[in-house]
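Fold it.
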Amino acid sequence: MIRLLVLLMAAAVGCAEGRAAERSSTREKSRAGAGGERARTAANSTVPTKAVAVKKAGEVARGYSVIDLGTLGGPKAEAYAINNAGQIVGVADTAVQSDVWGRISHGFLFEGSKMIDLGTMDRDQKSEATGIDSRGLVLGNSILQVGCIVSGRTFTMQERRRTLLKLDKELYTSPRAVNDAGHFAGLCNFGRYIHAFLYDGKLHDLGSLGNEERSEAYGMNNSNDVVGVSSTPKYATGDRAVLWRKREIINLGTLPGHYSSEARGINNRGVIVGWSTPPHKAVRFPRAFIFSNGKMRDLNELLPPNSGWELLEANGINDAGQIVGEGRFKGQQRAFLMSPGRK
């Protein structure tokens, strides 16, 4: 699974590894059936949760079409976000190989029917694009490795012009999502804890299900509703997809019988997408989900018959109900665009 975001928190967590390696390692362990420390805890442990109150969410369409967005010359791609104009951003493999990185991947912008390589900053080797607003402002990260030291810089891009983004002078923030008001959500090292944040001119610690546990934000809408993932108190169970509404956390649960989940995107109608992972003993890939009107549903159930797709992650959704993410198509991990049919 492609994941490039770098966590520049070596002093706080005692390492200098990229976010790409951390999240990719976690994802591959889940897929391969390795439960790690959390899997060794009783799976029937309970997690405190508030009643899910996602009101007036949009209806889920009865049928969808799905297309492969292609790559930048390599085998893999993943889409992270889509705006209401249908512009899509994400990360894709290029044709370039590196002794250090292996396959080089770059952030992309997909519009019309073309995938555009957004390149990197200066001498950086890799990049990713994680968010896009209605004006086409792209949020991304550019990554450089020198020896064993990995560093990354967050940027915004408008009409191919990049601007470095730093939200706080003292704390390290890693924005992942942006809305039309120019507010951001992502991950922040608050010193003792690494938590999801909301930035609306002021940096807010969104907390976690156990307060002291780790959380991350991946998506947001124009109402400053934020979605992401939180570890559970004392790792009682796997991670949980969560919604922060008015900065209060709501546990969205998992697909039936699953072990962990993450929420990745939310539109202005309150519809949420993400992915859910089966129990650690099951050697299976995660399943993309859509959460609407208090119910989580496997997106694969909405695919056309014999589509050839297995949808692994749903990362973004716009107000028209178009969904982007990553899936397996003809044996390859590819970025998809899923468009609704009739309701």
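The helical segments are 10-13, 19-32, 36-39.
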